[in-house]
């Protein structure tokens, strides 16, 4: 009667099976890197000023802007106002101190030097509405907070693999819908659900890797592999944002690769440790036998125990213990691990 680590030690640590799981799980983490920070570019605010009356448009050279827009100091720099314009153009009879200004009643004109469009230019999230850009990012992370709370419970009930690919599918579907958004409010609601999917698949991938891999493979995966492939997501985001200045096309380009990850479902097994906790010993043995075949190792004499001490052929005595968050601080050892985990994350 053996636990999982003892029973699978004969597989080795870096065989073809372990390398495949390591690579596939790391690849699923790449989208987490670029989705998490994509709002930096999707919601960036380009240079802008009030849209000028049609009768004055076409006279917006540097010399003429001074007669149409007031100047204000922003971060120690004198720039043309982004939120107000003169009611009348400059004349010899009026100077800048006596002329009346008004809000941007006709909308705004945005610089296209860096972007063709962002969600800011799409829905005019500037001036009185400039809080909406950062708020959109906050909504995403609110979804991530919610997802981080519920994903653990869901994965304990339905499995790590289900949450991993369910999160990827959720993130992909809502991102595609986001491309066709017709309002900022709709974009925000979808961002919330994308945040849930993003953090859920990240946590599930992290846990699944640490539960399938053993010893040095587990350590390298959880400390280096996850971090490097997450950083690759950052790099991809920068490259895509540089090449694609339109927010809808950028979002589409970031979403399409997520579809390519979904077929990994047939190559990544469920967590054997979770299966043992559910008493599904036969499934665990099937996974280990498949791993042994891939590693070209003869598989003999396996005998697993689940979390309750029940073994294959003796599952009638199995029972389920109820746990809650107080278990995280119940003993000194678990309490120390909990505190360290909070600090690290």
UniProtKB/TrEMBL annotation:
<dbReference type="InterPro" id="IPR036259">
    <property type="entry name" value="MFS_trans_sf"/>
</dbReference>
<dbReference type="InterPro" id="IPR005828">
    <property type="entry name" value="MFS_sugar_transport-like"/>
</dbReference>
<protein>
    <submittedName>
        <fullName>Solute carrier family 22 member 4</fullName>
    </submittedName>
</protein>
<dbReference type="GO" id="GO:0022857">
    <property type="term" value="F:transmembrane transporter activity"/>
</dbReference>
<dbReference type="InterPro" id="IPR020846">
    <property type="entry name" value="MFS_dom"/>
</dbReference>
<keyword id="KW-0472">Membrane</keyword>
<feature type="domain" description="Major facilitator superfamily (MFS) profile">
    <location>
        <begin position="21"/>
        <end position="345"/>
    </location>
</feature>
<feature type="transmembrane region" description="Helical">
    <location>
        <begin position="186"/>
        <end position="208"/>
    </location>
</feature>
<dbReference type="Pfam" id="PF00083">
    <property type="entry name" value="Sugar_tr"/>
</dbReference>
<feature type="transmembrane region" description="Helical">
    <location>
        <begin position="220"/>
        <end position="244"/>
    </location>
</feature>
<feature type="transmembrane region" description="Helical">
    <location>
        <begin position="21"/>
        <end position="43"/>
    </location>
</feature>
<feature type="transmembrane region" description="Helical">
    <location>
        <begin position="250"/>
        <end position="268"/>
    </location>
</feature>
<feature type="transmembrane region" description="Helical">
    <location>
        <begin position="135"/>
        <end position="155"/>
    </location>
</feature>
<keyword id="KW-0812">Transmembrane</keyword>
<keyword id="KW-1133">Transmembrane helix</keyword>
<dbReference type="GO" id="GO:0016020">
    <property type="term" value="C:membrane"/>
</dbReference>
<feature type="transmembrane region" description="Helical">
    <location>
        <begin position="162"/>
        <end position="180"/>
    </location>
</feature>
């Amino acid at each position: 009667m053996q636990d999982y680590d003892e029973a699978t030690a004969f597989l080795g640590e870096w065989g073809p099976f372990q390398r495949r799981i390591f690579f596939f799980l790391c690849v699923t983490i790449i989208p987490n890197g670029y989705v998490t920070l994509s709002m930096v570019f999707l919601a960036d605010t380009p240079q802008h000023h009030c849209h000028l009356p049609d009768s004055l448009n076409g006279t917006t050279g540097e010399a003429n802007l001074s007669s149409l827009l007031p100047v204000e100091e922003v971060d120690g720099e004198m720039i043309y106002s982004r939120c107000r314009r003169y009611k009348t153009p400059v004349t010899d009879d009026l100077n800048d101190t006596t002329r009346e200004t008004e809000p941007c009643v006709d909308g705004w004109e945005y610089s296209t030097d860096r972007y063709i469009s962002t969600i800011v230019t799409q829905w005019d999230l500037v001036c009185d509405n400039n809080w909406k850009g950062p708020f959109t990012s906050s909504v995403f992370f609110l979804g991530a907070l919610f997802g981080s709370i519920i994903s653990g419970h869901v994965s304990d009930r339905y499995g790590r693999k289900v949450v991993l690919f369910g999160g990827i599918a959720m993130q992909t579907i809502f991102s595609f819908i986001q491309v066709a958004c017709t309002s900022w409010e709709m974009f925000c609601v979808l961002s919330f659900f994308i945040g849930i999917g993003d953090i859920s698949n990240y946590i599930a991938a992290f846990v699944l890797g640490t539960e399938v891999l053993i010893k040095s493979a587990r350590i390298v995966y959880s400390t280096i592999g996850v971090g490097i492939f997450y950083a690759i997501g950052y790099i991809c985001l920068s490259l895509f944002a540089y090449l694609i200045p339109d927010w809808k096309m950028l979002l589409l380009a970031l979403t399409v690769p997520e579809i390519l990850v979904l077929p990994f479902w047939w190559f990544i097994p469920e967590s054997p440790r979770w299966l043992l906790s559910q008493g599904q010993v036969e499934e665990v043995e099937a996974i280990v036998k498949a791993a042994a075949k891939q590693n070209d190792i003869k598989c003999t004499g396996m005998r697993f125990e689940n979390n309750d001490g029940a073994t294959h052929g003796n599952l009638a005595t199995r029972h389920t213990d109820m746990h809650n968050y107080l278990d995280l601080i119940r003993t000194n050892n678990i309490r120390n691990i909990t505190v360290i985990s909070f600090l690290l994350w």
